[in-house]
Amino acid sequence: MELNIKKCKVVSYAKRSMIENKYYVTDESESRYFERVENMKDLGVIFDSRLDFQAHIHEKVNKAYIVLGVIKRNFMQLNRETFVNLYKVI
Fold it and tell me: Could you tell me the sign of the dihedral formed by the alpha carbons of 57, 59, 60, 61, in that order?
């Protein structure tokens, strides 16, 4: 199985000082370094280098506001109970 260097990324998890090692794979022709990132999405969860999940929480809150806006624009005549039930379903 071949490794796709363009899809490989490196993230270091630490509470205090960050690890700045460079990781690479040597090919017949050249050495290719992995891209270092601050956060990475895996199985729908955004993990950042500090493990505080702020980016993940921010994304989920924004999605909730988007759904809320869609409901408010398209279903203006709903009473409160029906509105809450529709929001929970979506």
Answer: positive
| Contact in structure between 39 and 11 (CB atoms under 8 Å) | yes
Averaged pLDDT in 10-residue chunks for the chain of 90 residues: 81 76 77 84 88 91 90 83 84
Q: How far is it, in rounded angstroms, from Cα 11 to Cα 27?
A: 22
Give phi and psi for 24, each to the nearest 5. -150, 165
H or E segment to which residue 25 belongs: strand 24-26
- Asked whether 60 and 71 are in contact (CB, 8 A), the reply is no
Predicted TM-score (pTM) of this structure:
0.64
